[in-house]
Amino acid sequence: MGMETPPLTDEQLIAQVRAGDKSSLQAFHDRYRNLVFTVAHRVCGQECDAETVLVTVFWEIWRNPSAWNPQRGSARTYLLLLTRSRARDLMRSERGRATAQRTAGEELSLQKNRSETELDPSEQLFDKNRSMRLREATQTLPDDVREALDLAFFAGLTHVDISIRLGIPLGTVKTRIRRGLVQLRERLTATKDDWLIQ
């Protein structure tokens, strides 16, 4: 019976990730997934999604594997620092935009889902005008931003789902959605459509 091949060290795995080997990233992910998730959940508590931090951390490893320098500490130590940092970033970001995004998101969903039969004629006219202004404002957004908003609010996808669907980093998805909501608010405020920001 032959001897089993010993598992690759962290340094060997990261060297292969640096060379573009996705299977090595998967092996590194499998090795440290539970650690990263646990730390992220401990830092975030109820305020952010540990899965989001998990995806962000390993995306960053894939995008920039050279950021870890073995001479300055172990991979475990580097991941702990990176996870805490990204979890705190997410908490700050979520707190900063939660109210605005929730309000705008609810209104966007309302425009898609409200049935006109529930409204009296004057409300129907107001709602139709409001929907038209919202559509016009949305059409002025860059294509990539509009696509992210559509997937988030109309298709009901999570940020992680959108990241996978579009093949872009999670941070980029969040940036596009945040930018889109800010730009919508600016456009609608400029035309006195303050219903979106009440």
UniProtKB/TrEMBL annotation:
InterPro entries, per database record: RNA_pol_sigma-70-like, RNA_pol_sigma-70_dom, RNA_pol_sigma70_r2, RNA_pol_sigma70_r4_t2, RNA_pol_sigma_r2, RNA_pol_sigma_r3/r4-like, WH-like_DNA-bd_sf
Alphabetized SUPFAM superfamilies for the sequence: Sigma2 domain of RNA polymerase sigma factors, Sigma3 and sigma4 domains of RNA polymerase sigma factors
UniProt key word Hydrolase: no
GO biological process: DNA-templated transcription initiation
Xref: Gene3D superfamilies: 1.10.1740.10, Winged helix-like DNA-binding domain superfamily/Winged helix DNA-binding domain
Family that this chain belongs to: Belongs to the sigma-70 factor family. ECF subfamily.
Protein name in the entry: ECF RNA polymerase sigma factor SigK
Organism listed in the record: Rubripirellula reticaptiva
